[in-house]
Amino acid sequence: MKNSLLLGAILCFIAAVSWGAMFPVAHAAFKHIDPFYFTIIRYGSVTIILVVLLLWKEGKKAFRFEGKGLKLWFYGTMAFTVYNLFIFWGEDLLGEPGVMVASIMESLMPMISIVIAWVIFKKSPHLFTLLCVIVSFIGAVLVITKGDIKAFLGATEDIIPSLLILIAVIGWVIYTMGGSKFRGWSALRYSTLSCLLGTVTAIVVTAGVTFTGYISVPSVEAIKIVSPHLLFMTIFPGVIALLGWNIGVGILSPLNGLLFINFVPVTTLLIAIIQGSPVTSFDLIGTVFIIVSLVSNNIFVRISQKKESKVHVQTKLRERTS
After folding, report:
1. Got the DSSP string for 234-255?
2. What's the pLDDT at 135?
3. Among candidates 80, 30, 38, which has minimal Cα distance to 202?
4. Global pTM?
């Protein structure tokens, strides 16, 4: 049991650190290649690896959609088109500050999922949870605006990329929620088929954007230059993080797994400091706000669950004795 929990913790940690590292790595690559082609080359490679793994582990029958093809395409598009294209497009448009903005937005995923559940599924959060959501939002605003909200609102060139990153993160949250609709499927199967369909959509979108002249097909030389970046992004934030996170959360439970999201902005911040990139006090304070809100809400949920479990047991005992 202890070994299993340790494995789950290691997998979730590696996934979170990989996601935190991918933004500085991507930023360096965008000096030579645009985010669109960088994404489809990366996830084209991830798709091939996942397809081979699924074929080896579960056989041809695992590639049947079982009447869920449209759902798979929708959730795959949310993750591997909306999330992957928009988050790196937004990061690239913002330039150097985009690295921290993208990482902070990523760490907001647990809080965004609470808001989506509230708005769409009418599952109203507890007042304390709502307070944590507000605190995490304040933290994100501090990082994005660098403490100067008026200047940010006046700079429309910063607002649009930030919205792209926010839409991207919402897309990944929707994809994560969609996993519950494929019960009985392995994490590998859901990851592979959704990645396959979502990447096909991303390729179509990239071809369309290329046709408009907004981007151009990268040269062989450019691809060679960014090949180390692509290798890292394919293996760690791609295959290992995608599968490792799903498996790790399955071992630890979503509640325990979400704690590891804290390592995303921390990793990005540490890499930025090591690289000598400018890190403001607002980056540090905003990151702390988000981490504190995530941990606090996690502790609150645990306490609430224990109380509910205790009340449930007491109710059952009363029913038996009456």
Report:
1. IIIIIIIHHHHHHHHHHHH-HH
2. 87
3. 80
4. 0.83
